[in-house]
Amino acid sequence: MKTDFTRRAALGLMGGAAALPMLGRPALANTKLTVGALRFTSHAASFVAYERGYFADEGLDVEFKFFQAAQPMAVAIASGDADYAVTAISGGLVSLAEKGAAKVIGGALREEKGIDGQKILASNAAHAAGLTSPAALGGRTYGMTQAGSSFHYMGSKIAAAEGVEVTFKPLQKVGAIIGALKSGQIDAWSIVPHIAKALAGAGAVKIIGNVADYLPDYQVTTVFTSASNAANERAQTQAFLRAFSRGADDFNAALVDKTAGEDAAEEMVKLIHKYVYADKPYEKAAKSIRNGAMRISKNAALNTASVKDQLNWFKSEGLIKDSITFDTLVDPSYAEMI
Predict the structure, then answer these.
(1) What is the rounded distance in angstroms from the CA atom of residue 6 to the CA atom of residue 28?
(2) What Gene Ontology cellular-component terms does the record carry (predicted)?
(3) Which among 254, 255, 4 has a CA at the least distance from the CA of 116?
(4) Could you report the per-residue pLDDT of 198-218, keeping only the tens digit for each?
C-alpha cells in the first residue's frame, strides 16, 4: 500500500493560526507513516487521500493499521505503533493526552442538521417488549466497547435527556456489540448509519431514534496524533491534514452534498468498498456505504463546544481528572476551532 509522488499545488489558506499552511513545496519525501482507522464509511477521508494520491502528493508514504475500537487506537498512537488516526474521543485518549502522549489536531465526522446521522437501535426482542423509542430506555442494557467510549457517552446523554437510567455492558469490539444486539443479549446501542441501516434493513434490529436529536452538533470523531508529532513534526502534521482534508472534500462532494454528480458518487462508493464491507459483493455493500455518508469537517475544523461537553461528561463520570482542560487534549494551532 505504498506509492511515491510529489506535491504539485497548495490548498488555499484558511487564515490565522487555524490555517493548514502550505509554504512552498514540502520538505518531505517518502516519509513513512502508519495511519490508524476503522473499516467504517466515516473513515473515508483517509481512504480517499490514499487512493487518489493525496498523501503521496505530500511526500507521505502511508500504510493503514486497522482497529476495532477507539481506545486501542489511542494506545497505538501513544506507543508509536501508529502516527496519525481518526476516531472518537475516549477516556483513554484523554488520559493519554493528560500524560503528554497524544493530541487532537482536528475534527472529522460530525452530526449536522439536515444530514441523516447516527441511529439509536433496539434489539428485536426489546422492541417487541416495548422499547420503541429512547424514552423507554429506562432499566435497559446499552452496548458499548469500553467505559469512556463514544458509545458510553452517547448512551449516557440520551438516557439523561429522557430522565432514565440504563445499564452499560462493555463488549470491547463493535462486532461483539452487533452480535449481542442481534441475539437480544443487550437491548440498545447507537452507531453510524452505514451499520445501523444495514442491520435494520436486514430485519436484525429496529431503529428507534436519532443521535442528532440529543447531540445535534456532536463532534463524533477527531484527528489525533502523538504529542511529539504535534510539537516537533509540524510540516509532516500539516501535510497529513492537507491530504486528509482533500479526501474529505471529495467525499463530501460525492456522497454528502451530492454536488459532484452520480458518476463521481459511484466512483467514491467503489473506492470506499475496498475498505468497508470488502467481504461483501459490491451490489450489497453499495447501499450501506451510501447510507453512511455523514459530514466530515472541512479542513478538519473542530467543534470546540462539543469537545468541551464530552470532557465535562468524562469528568462527571469520574473517568478523567477534573484538572484536564480543552488545551490538555487539543492543539488548536493546526485546524479551525469552531
Answers:
(1) 9
(2) periplasmic space
(3) 255
(4) 899 999 999 999 999 999 999
